[in-house]
Amino acid sequence: MDCCKKFCNSPQIIPNQISIQWRTSGTLIFPYSSDQIAAISGYVLNNSASKGPVTVNFLRGGIGGALLPFSLIVQTGEYKSFVIVGVDTIRIDSGSNFATGELNITINFNPF
Q1: What superkingdom heads the lineage (predicted)?
Q2: Cα(12)–Cα(65) distance, rounded to whole angstroms?
Q3: Do residues 98 and 54 lie in contact, with contact meaning Cβ atoms separated by under 8 Å?
Q4: Which of 45, 84, 96, 107 is the most exposed place for a label (fewest CB within 10 A)?
């Protein structure tokens, strides 16, 4: 294997960027989950057409895992950015409201 292929195909070397359009109506959504994540940064946008705020929770241990002691409340028409280590799942909860938006993240598989 030549050097270029070795490094270009390694998720430990190159972070991935992901943009997800989400929508929820009174149910939780999990727009991203992976046991390969070491650290993430990005933002959550709650569109101005949404009917209320959303809560963004970060979990470790998958969908049924423990909540990390960091969450974001994103009001209608706003966005919030984050940088967090030790997360493998992102959950968005709109309560009983209809909401749409965007989640944009950069995944760093090897932050140190």
Answers
A1: Bacteria
A2: 24
A3: no
A4: 96
